[in-house]
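Hi Q.,

Before the meeting this afternoon, I wanted you to have the zinc ion prediction in hand. No need to reply - just skim if you have a minute. The sequence and ligand are here:
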Amino acid sequence: MPVPPDLFARVALDTPLTTLFDYRVQYTGHGEPPIVPGQLVQVPFGRRQVVGVVWEMTQRSEVPSQKIRSLEIAWRELPPLPADWRALMEFAARYYQRALGEVALPALPTHLRSAARWPRLLAERGARHFRLDPRGESALLASLPARAKARRRLAEGLCAAGTLDADEARALCAQAPELLHQWAAQGWVIVENTDADDYADAAAPLEVAAAPRLTDEQQAAFEAIDAALRREDAAPAPFLLHGVTGSGKTEVYLHAVAAALLHPGAQVLVLVPEINLTPQLEQVFRRRFPKETLATLHSGLAEGERARHWLAAHRGRARIVLGTRLAVLASLPHLRLIVVDEEHDPSYKQQESLRYSARDLAVWRAHQRGIPIVLGSATPSLDSWRRAQQGRYRLLTLRERASPDAVLPEVRLIDLQREGQAQRALEDGLAQPLLGAVAQRLARGQQSLLFLNRRGYAPVLACDACGWISGCPRCSAHLVLHKSERRLRCHHCGLEAAIPRACPDCGNLDLAPLGRGTQRIEETLARRFPNARIARIDADSTRRKGSAQALFDEVHAGAIDILVGTQMVAKGHDFRNVTLVGVINADAALFSHDFRAGERLFSQLMQVSGRAGRAGQPGEVLIQTRYADHPLYAALLRHDYAGFAAGQLAEREQASLPPFTHQALLRAEARALAVALEFLQTARDLGQTPELASAQVTLYDPVPMTLVRVANSERAQLLVESPSRPALQQFLSGWVARLRDTKTAARWYLEVDPLDI
Ligand code: ADP
Ligand code: ZN
Ligand code: ZN
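Predicted structure with the ligand bound:
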């Protein structure tokens, strides 16, 4: 019999090293390769055992044969991660300039990355059967010494019967469960769940909801998507669904999802920006598709749950997968449609480790699979809007609110300059006209929503006598006063301190809060409207798991009269009885150094305005401002996203800013700013050597970041820019490879397509 050639698995491991790692693989008795790409395996790595993903199989390894180690454990019961998932990981690694393993392994739920948990993950529910793999028969018996009586009894029993259930197995040998799973890992035994169910959420039966009749605009949008779903020949261009708030974008998604699910086995992926929006949307989907298995994926799930949901998606059992940005990295072998709701939302961008944009990866994924993707928003990102203008995305427009009785709210400005004696007219930050409007809603039994993007009681505590202010000792930032918790808190490094009873510098007892946060507004309202039921929704009031949902439920149930909140309340929620939205302090963002601040503010205000007047009663939006002439507000009063976007794009083009150029940031931090700056200077010099430099790529001077110190680290950055994305990509890959070999005491990372500059 010919000797089979050597065989090696090339495995991706979670390390910053950009190579795959080779392991020798033993053939099974029949000469066919026992391992395939995409399989999860556990391999020795240094002194540890670690989980990796097999990326390719090869008959030749560069590693000297005495150094190469053997692959011993593979998770054979798990279908391999499909080729399109692996392609997505490769793309993300390449695009964001990271090592493949650093991308692929963290994309898996934690429980899948521990081999000890594998047997249980697939077998948690349902009765189990153990079936002998015909290829395992001789190997299994051969592996057991004659003196291992109990183990041999189990093996022989299994060989004789072909399958055993858990009780039969235990009767033969007390350690049967462990042994059978070990043998399964060797590929000798197959574990089967009788009801083949690793995932079935026993959700309470819900009232099934019938679909409403689509409006003409909704119908047209749906038909375009449906046509793309039917066409199999070419990859459809992404759809940009631009619909005013309340225009019923969700209904278009639901119809598109229903159409996609007509294909046998097909899966759909629906992305939302905020964890808090998933329960609401999950209900909507469960009601509409009561027979389909739905899995959610977001960071709020317990690890075990997340692993089960992920597996349900991976095995094709979950046909609807609904999640936040991390869901875009899930394995979805039968993916047929992707929906990205609120596509403009900055939360789609991950701000740590792999700094990816879930929206951008979703677009890539759809393109690669040749399936439709729907990007929905009332205020699309300028990037997506421009692509639609260029015809690269297909624009679908909903101009009207969907409910026959809902109209867009009237937006008015409260001019604080004109209110005269601004300070006196403002009772703790709330102008008289706004207070009057709230009182009116209270009298009518309607709800008001007050929006203020600043949590805490006051952004800073100050001493009038000597000028002391509460600074964070570890950051170049202020400590925020949290009165109800009696603490000062740094929102950047998390430092907490007691509220000093007197000024630490001069002993003055009269320390005063400066400025206003949500807590202070809540306090003012409580004083002003003692009988009103007031709730505050921000990151502080919703720290406990489930508390945000509970508060939102109260609002929906009408148990709240006045809701005060940060951008958490602005997004997506369909409040039926809110007829007044008050915007308390939006001006701060008008003059930010960040060129995207205007775009973000406009979309936030449009979003929060969209919470008013959604059902029947007309809505009103009041915006307090000192800059009533500002063009951003003018566009907002007209509900004119297109006009606003055109103005912004013209400015960006003039200034050669994104989307007219492409950017990356190299960021470095160290104990001393000089160390960070020196590394960046070295990096810049390196990038300008003839070997790397590109005429199309500009490297700017290293500069300290605006918030230079956080948690005792000093931070600096270097901007890289190019009008050509491929040129930028090519430059970055050569540059980063060299940077990896550069010695420095600074920690550094690269961010491609940064959102905050
Ligand atoms: P958007 O996400 O575009 O802001 P929603 O999807 O939340 O809007 O829809 C707004 C409201 O309009 C919801 O209460 C929804 O039930 C209702 N709605 C959507 N489509 C229709 C329709 N065709 N007929 C009647 N009501 C609709
Ligand atoms: Zn003082
Ligand atoms: Zn701090």
